[in-house]
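Budget justification note: compute hours in this period were largely spent on complex prediction jobs such as the one shown. Inputs:
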Amino acid sequence: MISIKNLHKSYPIGQSSLHALKGISFDINDGELVSVMGSSGSGKSTLLNIIGLLDSYDNGTYYLNDLLMENLSETKAAYYRNKYFGFVFQSFNLIAYKNAQENIALPLYYQGISRKKRNIMAMEYLDKVGLRDWAHHLPSELSGGQKQRIAIARALVTKPKLILADEPTGALDSQTSYEVMGLLTDINKQGITVIIVTHEREISEMTNRIIRLRDGMILEDKPVEKSKANV
Amino acid sequence: MFSIDRWQEIFITIGKNKLRSALTAFSVAWGIFMLIILLGAGQGLQNGVMENFESDATNGMWIYSGITSKEHDGLQSNRYIQFNNRDYDETKRINSENIEYSNATVWVWSDNLITYGKESVNYDIAGVYSGAQEIEKNDIVKGRFINKADCDENKKSVVISEKVRKELFKDKNAIGEWISIGGIPFKVVGIYISDSNRDNDVVYVPFSTAQRSFSLVNRVNNLSFTIKGLTTEETEDFEKTLRKQFAMRHKFDPTDESAIYIHNNLVSLKQINAMFAGISAFIWLIGIGTIIAGIVGVSNIMLIVVKERTKEIGIRKAIGATPWSIISDILMEAILITTVAGYFGLVLGVAALEIFSTLVPPSDFFRSPQANLQIALSATILLIICGTIAGFVPARRAAAIKPIVALRDE
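Corresponding output:
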């Protein structure tokens, strides 16, 4: 699914530059549930953004489904994002003036799906995340956990191959975090690859594989012995 | 591109900033409103002046006597030139090639009361030839104008304006009635109306009758005629020729501009056209300037909208929005605001002109101000172009937003 070789990325900061990724290499296969661990500044979010085609890289290679992702135009990147990825963010990133159902339906709008069909599909996914009754509520009327479930439903609605979650539990209390992780592992069990970026050990231990980053390099990359995901 | 969804998206964003959108829209509406008012006023001025101008023959030429300003041939300056019958006869004869209709006017100034029954009025009386009709272009609404027989036989005929008829005869049909001018009876043979208000204050009698009845023997105040077979440029040479002929007869320096005055409508027409072209260009300049102020306003608000929606645009991009879909949303929003507002201004402007022309009666200088369909159409096209320009910079900025930057948590 994903094959990354010797990936480098620097950000210019004034005169100097920050070398965020210093030669990262790994493969992720279909159906994996992977977490990328590291403290802030380790380069984990940068890595996720590059995988999600939200950012470009300087050196190395990145193959997505055997396609080299290089020098993509914005339009092409938008197409791949819409086709392959579903994004889940720490701050949910729901559109404030759209209700739950409209937020979930939005990616389908960019796929050119009719309004009627969009709304039916959005309801279906609302149902899956257990928020059918909240369809017409604005994000401001929902709790953090509910918002993240809406965001997950929005990520799922395009039937992506891959869910990219950037600190999905960062803004949630532990109880809600477990619920959200439960939802993500369920999704994984349906065959969708899930990559979770987190700095919380507990969260990473709920995945099947942990890639640990420090200072832009992979510290270790190992499967989780007794993943709580399988419990 | 014109799906309902897209419009809903646009309306939602406009609705989020109602006051700001309305204020910006107002600046565009105001720009178009002013343009329409200015253009309409310019048109009204032109209509008024042209109507007044065309109330006389556009190929007409008038010669008035003046006072010499140069000594000539042993004669002093400051000499009053008095035209006479010989001037009329010779001018007509010598220049017959270029003169179509001709007329000599002798004024019987308004110290003669015009009376009918108990009613009496006081107007200038002009003794004219039948040619005056073709030169002054008055509309005969009843009867006829002074004709050749009137002049040849010194008939006591009179042609009055509809205005004078009303004052003297009220509701009566005046044709065939006798009125008294300075105690002399004249028979009303025709009623006329002139487009020029000033021309409705003249009472016409046959030239020869005027000279005889009011002791103005051999006197002529001015000559007038219509020109044939000459271009506007050639008529200027013709003026010089005429000047020489009059200089010979009245012994003044042919270069003495104040001895006689020649008014040439063909040259005036040229000047008037040039003047209105200038006015029109000026109006467009101001109008477009006002609209540009509106465009800058719209562009500005769209920039703010893009700035405020940076995060939202980032989210949309992350979930698959293409740059084009973002650009076209912003463009459409800008075009929508400008066209709707501009159209509003357009309608208001046209309505204001309509109300104005209903309330204010047409005069010699201003009548029926209007913005024609062509102007309205070009203004509409201008608006759409303006909307696109207004949206261009913000849209480009929106498209350049990187989702990664937009989504970065503060």
